[in-house]
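worker-3 :: picked 4Fe-4S dicluster protein
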Amino acid sequence: MSLMITDECINCDVCEPECPNHAISQGEEIYQIDPDLCTQCVGHYDEPQCQQVCPVDCIPLDPNHEETEDQLMKKYLIISGKAA
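worker-3 :: tokens ->
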């Protein structure tokens, strides 16, 4: 399941540089996460780095983009160019 950024975002700029897949970008009003690039840091870290640094805890799972751990790993392999 990819992550999402809620309206509680304060645009503090700390999440964007932490994303190893470059899935986070500035939207019209708040930061947003591209679900096609978000792997919850699977393949990079044990925990999503954006959630770790967010001071307002506004990055929950996105219920509209459910994925298993295996699907997230496959997405990571494709994004990183390591897919067979």
